[in-house]
Amino acid sequence: MQIQASSGSTGSPSYVGLTASDITTWCELGARALYANGFRPGDRVLHAFGMSKGFVGALPVTQILQYMGIVDIPIGAEAGADRLLRVQADQRPNALIGTPYFLAYLAEQAPDIVGKPATELGVRAISVGGEPGGGIPAVRDNLQALWGATAREMLGGTDIACTYWGECEAGDGMHFLSPDLMVAELIDPDTGAAVTPVEGAHGELVYTALRRRASPLLRFRTRDHVVVTGTSCACGRTGYKVRCVGRTDDMLIVRGINVFPSALKQLVLEFTPEATGEMRIRADFTGHSTQHPLKLVVEHAADLPPHHHDDLRTRLETRIRSALNVKTTITLVPEGTLKRPDHIKVALIERV
Ligand SMILES: [Zn+2]
To answer: Are residues 346 and 203 in the same domain?
Structure first.
């Protein structure tokens, strides 16, 4: 009935086939996540994930929204900020779905493109996924302020379904919502040993699909690393809650210390407005491991006086060292130097 392609951890696509009943299972899994995020039947959603390449942010999200009784407006990230914002201003959908940095970028463009701030475009609820970011307080607060809406995270992946972890109104992690449709285990990625999902536990998610007719999956390793943020919740949901901290594929090992690019990004964001929050890791080594300080390029604000640059650089390096136990060498560049997320997402690691 349907074949989805994932980007795959090696760069070549991997494929998942779905029967009609598998599609229904995917829709039920996804509906629970998006409902937790605040989407409701009767809503209208501007769909700003990438719509091409067979990714699950595209057609499967459309199917989930329609299954929920929600009107999808499938414009897609590829259409660009201009088109998306014009549709938003014309149709005024009350909900928005896409990657967190791209949706923030969209809001920043709104005054130029449609002549009014994004807060006046009628959005009530935002669901973000596809990359870590929605769980970073500074990123979320910025997104919520820009749109005047709630922003909540979800997590999934092509292999098991589209999306199936959803953050509720409490806003402190994504619930596991569907023990009847899938098994989720947490393991130590090095030893494969089971990790009990208690608060503070971290590990890699491993999934088994239940009810799957095509493309069966048994203890599939996702390479997604999560930390458990809670096991009970004011919302009444009983599944434990997680934040995704990154993928094994993204993880760097700096003098033996594991570092996720998203953790570095989070620390750089603490320095706004002196820094813009944009940053890249310049990886001058092959593979994931280095014995040298990690090279970071960080944008400073356009109006930061030059005699404050040394001080900002030192405070950034000190903050990262104290938080992550990792030594960095930071180069400051002027605001606007680094590429903005004008499409789907921008890699935080640049290979040089
Ligand atoms: Zn909850």
So the answer is: no
pLDDT tens-digit series, residues 127-174? 999 877 888 888 899 999 999 999 999 999 888 889 999 999 999 999
User: Which long-range contacts (C-beta less than 8 Å, at least 24 apart) are formed by 72-77?
Assistant: 72/45, 72/47, 73/44, 73/45, 73/46, 73/47, 74/47, 75/46, 75/47, 75/48, 75/51, 76/47, 76/48, 76/49, 76/50, 76/51, 76/52, 77/48, 77/49, 77/50, 77/51, 77/102, 77/343, 77/344
Mean pLDDT by runs of 10 across the 352 residues of the chain is 74 85 97 98 96 87 98 94 97 96 92 98 96 86 97 91 95 97 94 96 95 93 92 96 85 82 89 93 87 94 95 96 91 92 69 82
**Statement to judge: residues 104 and 201 lie in one domain:** yes
Q: Which residues lie closer than 8 Å to 241 by C-beta, 6 or more apart? A: 167, 172, 173, 174, 175, 176, 228, 229, 230, 231, 233
CA of 180 to the centre of ligand 1 (A): 18
Nearest to 269 by CA among 227, 320, 324: 320
Domain of 189, CATH number, reads: 3.40.50.12780
How far is 338 from 69, CA to CA, in rounded Å? 40
Output the DSSP codes for 156-213: EETTTEEEEEEE-TT-SSEEE--TTTEEEEEE-TTT--B----TT-EEEEEEEESS--
- Which residues are 334's β-sheet partners? 300
For 37, the token pair is 């995020």
100 shares its domain with 171: yes
38 Cα–ligand 1 center, Å = 11
In angstroms, what is the span from residue 39 Cα to ligand 1's centroid?
A: 15
Ligand 1 centroid from CA 152, angstroms? 11
- Over residues 6-32, the pLDDT tens digits come to 765 455 778 899 999 999 999 999 999
- Domain with 50, as residue range(s), is 2-249
CA of 32 to the centre of ligand 1 (A): 12
